[in-house]
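Exercise 7b. Backbone tokens:
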């Protein structure tokens, strides 16, 4: 069995990295920032949904 070197895709990427729906991406970011998460936490690569 071979190990995969790429990490699995996170569900949050569909919300926060969607150039086709930039207005909703901005809304989601605003909501998470209002919730109390920092930009560093959002950019950490760790899952934030689920």
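Sequence design result:
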């Amino acid at each position: 069995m071979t190990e995969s070197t790429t990490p699995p895709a996170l569900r949050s990427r569909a919300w926060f990295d969607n150039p086709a729906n930039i207005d909703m991406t901005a809304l989601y970011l605003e909501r998470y920032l209002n919730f109390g998460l920092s930009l560093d936490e959002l950019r950490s690569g760790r899952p934030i949904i689920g």
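Instructor comment: Residues 12-42 form one domain. The two ends are 29 Å apart (CA to CA).
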